[in-house]
Amino acid sequence: VFKKMRDRVSSTTKKFTEKINHLLYYKELDEDFFEELEENLILSDISVNTAEMIVEELQDGIKAKKIKTTESVIEELQNIMIQMVDIPEAPIHFPAISLIVGVNGVGKTTTIAKLAQKYKDEGKKVMLAAADTFRAAAVEQLETWASRIGVDIVTSRPGADPASVVFDAIHSAQAKNADVLICDTAGRLHNKVNLMNELNKLNRICEREKGEYNIHNVLVVDATTGQNALMQAKTFNDAVPLSGIIMTKLDGTAKGGVIIPILNELKIPIEYVGLGEKAEDLVTFNAKDFVEVLYQ
Ligand code: GDP
Q1: Is 104 near ligand 1, meaning CB less than 6 Å away?
Q2: Does ligand 1 come within 6 angstroms of the Cβ of 107?
Q3: Which has fewest Cβ within 10 Å: 43, 114, 203, 219?
Q4: pTM, entire model
Q5: Could you tell me the distance, in angstroms and rounded to a whole number, from the CA of residue 64 to the centre of ligand 1?
Q6: Low-confidence ranges of the chain (pLDDT < 70)
């Protein structure tokens, strides 16, 4: 898994390594050095806030440890970044209800299919709920996946109230003793307030009806959108408390750096990353390994 991540996220790591290695040309740890460092962090999709925080901590570390060489600075930088991403995992506890939220096009449906396949392979009884009732195509797409993977799905006619789909799905999951109910949700962003209210309502229904089930809400973000992923994580986390994030399309993008501010500023674990379109292309993520990979 680690090797797969290193191979596939090569564009992120190559770009980052090039930028950081350029700093080795500096003879002195002067203002220019720190300015270029901060600029490079921001260009690597590490947010302005997190980049500033990193540089400040680095300057403190240099003083405290009396660091003199650029090589040692780079090492200290890696340590600081590892500490920043070291946040506790929040694993899913079964039986579980999982609302999968995210903007349209990020890879939500594909990710739901990948998760369903993964849980099924682990011997879990999986059920899907097609609660994105605004797009008929989304319901069809999920139905196709459900029959291909061989799991139950609860749907309704297009335009139905998503809350009633989720309500029915929870009771069906409970009646059939499903281990996990994965709910697809709408992701139109052109009316943000409505979308957030709707997701909030779905979350309240899950909380009210869950019985012995545990709620595990997951946001799907697209790595190729860079800083937008951080913004989306903030917005969605205000509407539904997120247990984790899945970042898709980390294959072939130089924008994976946004993982660092997501972890540092929101303290929400990245559970998996998508490294392709196939079911096996969902891999468990380890933030510390990711930072180490950045430096190879
Ligand atoms: P949704 O609108 O959020 O439900 O998005 P879809 O699941 O329909 O995915 C949108 C597109 O992204 C599809 O063409 C997927 O095959 C593709 N996709 C999803 N995840 C990944 C990934 O991890 N890597 C790559 N390269 N493509 C992905």
Answers
A1: yes
A2: yes
A3: 43
A4: 0.92
A5: 46
A6: 1-14, 295-296
